């Protein structure tokens, strides 16, 4: 029996690896275990609870004010020790976080094979997103198997000289999770304690803008610009309700609370559990975000997304017209929101539901490939 260890540490990795973990645990011929680094603690645990995943190993590394060196060193050291007592045949990692990069390096040092899920996303700019672009380029060099979400992602890997036999296009596991969650929920869970926000959503308020943001390259002036633009929109449009579950990073919490606290139609709330966030997306008018995962989920739900970044590694949604880049720029954000609020044609063009990121069967394709071509050593 081959031993496979899935390693992840943050909220988005957990969401995107959850269905794979659930199915791998039921797959014959594979002894599957889960290790969380807990680069995120509360936001990770929310996801584990919903998908009922109990990690076999927990490195519990998160500390307030952690920097990239802290995360990298803690993951490297934690996995070095773990691999002494539990040595998998292969690890599975996801995406472009520092957990993903450091876990891959730890496995490489220990001579353990690496499978990389969501491989091949690229902006071509090492500074944006920072440090994620560098993380994913490094992991692609180390990985033995690359599970790419789209054909564009596969082409990116090929153009970097990655062996085509090591790449398979599977669709994005984010859709597998989204469909699972969508089918399970029709309202907010009991965790949703903010009564006012609950009332706004449940009464199908027509103009809810759902906002998230956390990117390092937007820290400082970027977040100030974003919040000033939101303040202007809220003041000009009292009919609009801006709902903003604020990321727990103090570098996000501080500017957001400073600029936006106390505005009656801006609701700053704690990060929502994944099912509550999916419900909120379904009920919203459109989204404003710098998140990666939300750029993939929103098209599947037929919701326009304004992306607060200058570049994106997810050109599929932009190409299809669902997503638009507005940067962390005061005027572009304000104008983008204004247009979606007032121009019905623009809204309808962007709101067409389609799914460039998958059909909800990515997990099955990943497991087939693992079992057929790899874990049987063929
Ligand atoms: C990380 C990832 C980023 C991913 C994002 C998803 C890296 C370098 N960054 O960025 O790629 O898109 O997660 O959200 O890997 N915090 C808490 N509780 C939590 C989570 C975070 O208190 O549950 C606070 C802590 O103070 C922590 C800080 O947020 O130190 C920053 O977390 P960190 O993982 O370093 O960075 P993110 O911006 O979350
Ligand atoms: N999400 C959530 N609760 C929230 C905000 C987002 O569960 O309050 C989910 C969202 O559905 C998506 C993921 O978190 O699947 C995105 O995570 P994040 O923006 O932190 O990271 P990124 O995708 O940018 O790496």
Task: Please specify the SSE layout and strand pairing.
Elements (H helix, E strand, L loop, with lengths): L1 E7 L2 H14 L5 E7 L5 H10 L5 E2 L9 H18 L4 E5 L3 H13 L2 E5 L14 H11 L2 E4 L2 H9 L7 E3 L3 H12 L10 H8 L5 E5 L8 H16 L4 E5 L4 H11 L5 E4 L4 H10 L2 E4 L3 H9 L3 E3 L7 H6 L2 E3 L4 H13 L1 H7 L11 H14 L3
Parallel strand pairs: 1-2, 1-4, 2-3, 4-5, 5-6, 6-7, 8-9, 8-11, 9-10, 11-12, 12-13
Bound molecules: uridine-diphosphate-N-acetylglucosamine and uridine-5'-diphosphate.
Briefly summarize what is shown.
The chain has 16 helices and 13 strands. By secondary structure, the protein is α/β, with parallel strands linked by helices.
Would you mind describing this structure in some detail?
With 378 residues, the protein is α/β, with parallel strands linked by helices. It has helices at 11-24, 42-51, 68-85, 98-110, 132-142, 151-159, 173-184, 195-202, 221-236, 250-260, 274-283, 293-301, 315-320, 330-342, 344-350, 362-375; strands at 2-8, 30-36, 57-58, 90-94, 113-117, 145-148, 167-169, 208-212, 241-245, 266-269, 286-289, 305-307, 323-325. A 7-stranded parallel beta sheet has the order 3-2-1-4-5-6-7, with helices on both faces. Strands 10-9-8-11-12-13 form a 6-stranded parallel beta sheet, with helices on both faces. Helix 5 links the parallel strand 5 (113-117) and strand 6. The longest helix has 18 residues, at 68-85. The relative contact order is 0.13. The chain binds uridine-diphosphate-N-acetylglucosamine and uridine-5'-diphosphate (UDP). The site of uridine-5'-diphosphate has 15 residues, from helix 1, helix 11 and helix 12.
């Amino acid at each position: 029996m081959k031993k496979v260890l899935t390693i992840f540490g943050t909220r988005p990795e957990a969401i995107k690896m959850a269905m794979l973990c659930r199915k791998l645990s039921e797959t014959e011929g594979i002894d599957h275990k889960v290790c969380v680094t807990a680069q995120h603690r509360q936001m990770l645990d929310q996801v584990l609870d919903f998908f009922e995943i109990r990690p076999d190993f927990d490195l519990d590394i998160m500390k307030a004010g952690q920097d990239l060196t802290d995360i990298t060193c803690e993951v490297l050291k934690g996995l070095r020790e773990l691999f002494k007592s539990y040595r998998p045949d292969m690890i599975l990692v996801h995406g472009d976080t520092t957990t993903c990069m450091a876990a891959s390096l730890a496995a490489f040092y220990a001579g353990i094979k690496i499978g990389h899920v969501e491989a091949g996303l690229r902006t071509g700019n090492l500074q944006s997103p920072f440090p994620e672009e560098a993380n994913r380029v490094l992991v692609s060099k180390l990985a033995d198997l690359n599970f790419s979400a789209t054909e564009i992602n596969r082409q990116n890997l090929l153009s970097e000289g990655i062996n085509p036999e090591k790449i398979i296009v599977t669709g994005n596991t984010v859709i597998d999770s989204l469909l699972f969650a969508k089918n399970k929920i029709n309202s907010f869970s009991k965790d949703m304690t903010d009564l006012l926000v609950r009332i706004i959503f449940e009464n199908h308020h027509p103009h809810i803008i759902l906002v998230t943001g956390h990117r390092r390259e937007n820290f400082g002036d970027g977040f100030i610009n974003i919040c000033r633009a939101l303040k202007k929109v809220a003041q000009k449009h009292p009919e609009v309700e801006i709902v903003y579950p604020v990321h727990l990073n103090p570098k996000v919490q501080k500017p957001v609370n400073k600029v936006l606290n106390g505005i009656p139609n801006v609701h700053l709330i704690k990060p929502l559990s994944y099912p509550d966030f999916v419900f909120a997306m379904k009920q919203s008018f459109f989204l404003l975000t710098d998140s990666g995962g939300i750029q993939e989920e929103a098209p599947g739900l037929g919701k326009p997304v304004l992306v607060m970044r200058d570049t994106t590694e997810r050109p599929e949604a932009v190409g299809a017209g669902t997503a638009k880049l507005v940067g962390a720029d005061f005027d572009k954000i304000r104008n983008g929101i204004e247009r979606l609020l007032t121009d019905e044609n623009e809204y309808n063009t962007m709101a067409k539901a389609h799914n460039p990121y998958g059909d909800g069967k990515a997990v099955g394709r990943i497991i087939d490939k693992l079992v057929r071509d790899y874990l049987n050593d063929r």
